[in-house]
Write a structure and sequence with these properties.
Length: 402
């Protein structure tokens, strides 16, 4: 009779070895899937190389809009076109710009990245080829950056090299961040969208990126957006962050020893088309005093397009009717007021809430000027989003809590 004990042991060893090897392969596959899934569609979209490897994951805090746009948890499961909350499907023809009501998830889609690359870096003749169009709405990011420089004293006193430190909160794909580098020695852009920050970092590395724009229906073409040749891209950096809960490294540190937390270290802070894309805009405004050094400039630009997909209604800064009781008592309304307001009923203006917050003793700012700032986002060859943002410029008081 044959001795089968050794064969039996060998069989068991082989079975265990096969199982262990299978588990190791599965673990390795899972690791690489988790490591790269947040940027996989960008690698395909922009033909990216190893520059994306090792990027940090998105912040876990739910908040922040166009520079911080996460207010609600993403649904689990669902379409196979979603990986880690990022839409990897082919672009649709749906609107994704500032007036869209899709909510924070739109800023992680291919369509949004392509639209914003064109918005920030597209050739004006490609963006608006029509003679009778609103040409004064082009070069929006450049005009925002120029406003920061116009009111910043360190820029005016520097006659040779750019001087000072600037911060672009809600930088999206980085157009205004690069424009600020024409005027400031060091510029940092911050946005909550991983897709936007990835594109901004690639733009810094390469100086240009190809993007897809729609002609009509599903017909597209490829164009190239580029950073202005006058910009020293080495001055610029980008990071993911929450505008409603700003990183501590950006706050404080610019005041005297006794008032260390009262001032920040930035000469200029830009927040362009950000406020109405935040889940808690008041929380952002409350932090601004600690971003700027004495005499520093805060430039707020917003169309006040309040939508519940982005900001809970009880956190809107304005754009709702005062309730009858609040109007009678002379108080303020915390909600949308009457469902059927009378004609010409009083309503809460966003600027009034911003002014009250920033000019208070805790706010620490004085209003310098206000103006209208048009912008234009192209959706396809014959459809555009034209808006006029309200631009307000604020100067940080030199005496804290005065």
């Amino acid at each position: 009779m044959a001795d089968t004990s050794n064969d039996s042991k060998l069989g068991r060893y082989l079975a265990v070895g096969v199982a262990a090897a299978g588990a190791a392969c599965a673990a390795t596959s899972l690791y690489w899937n988790l490591h790269f899934r947040g940027t996989s569609w960008l690698i395909g979209s922009f033909d990216l190389g190893p520059s994306l490897y090792g990027m940090s994951s998105a912040p876990s805090t739910p908040a922040a809009g166009k520079g911080g746009k996460k207010g609600k948890k993403k649904k689990k499961g669902g379409s196979s076109g979603h990986l880690n909350g990022m839409d990897t499907r082919e672009p649709s023809t749906a609107s994704t710009g500032p007036s869209a009501g899709g909510g924070p998830a739109v800023y992680e889609t291919k369509r949004a990245v392509n639209e914003y690359l064109q918005f920030h870096f597209g050739d004006p003749n490609d963006v608006l080829p029509y003679r009778d169009g609103p040409h004064d709405a082009l070069r929006f990011t450049q005009r925002c950056a120029d406003l920061c420089a116009k009111h910043t004293k360190s820029v005016k006193t520097s006659r040779t090299e750019p001087a000072g430190l600037a911060l672009d909160i809600g930088c999206a794909v980085g157009g205004a961040t690069f424009e600020l580098a024409k005027h400031f020695a060091i510029v940092e852009g911050l946005d909550y969208s991983r897709a936007f920050i990835t594109a901004a970092r690639l733009m810094k590395e390469r100086g240009s990126l190809r993007y897809t724009c729609f002609r009509e229906g599903e017909v597209t073409r490829k164009l190239t957006g580029a950073v202005n040749d006058r910009v020293d891209r080495a001055r610029v950096s980008f990071r993911e962050g929450d505008a409603c809960v700003l990183p501590r490294s950006l706050l404080g540190g610019g005041g005297s020893g006794s008032d260390f937390d009262a001032f920040g270290r930035h000469d200029a802070v830009l927040a362009a088309n950000l406020l109405c894309r935040l889940p808690d805009p008041a929380a952002f405004l409350a932090q601004c005093a600690r971003l700027l050094r004495p005499g520093g400039v805060l430039v707020l630009v917003s169309p006040y397009s309040w939508l519940e997909a982005w900001t809970p209604k009880d956190r809107w800064l304005g754009g709702y009717y005062e309730s009858a009781s609040a109007s009678e008592d002379g108080g303020s309304a915390e909600g949308s007021g009457s469902a059927s307001p009378a004609p010409n009923a009083p309503y809460r203006r966003s600027f009034d809430a911003i002014e009250a917050a920033l000019t208070s003793a805790e706010g620490g700012f004085d209003l310098v000027e206000q103006s209208d700032l048009p912008f234009l986002i192209k959706e396809h060859d014959r459809k555009f989003q034209w808006g006029v943002s309200h631009c307000t410029v604020w100067r940080r008081r030199r005496v804290p809590n005065a």
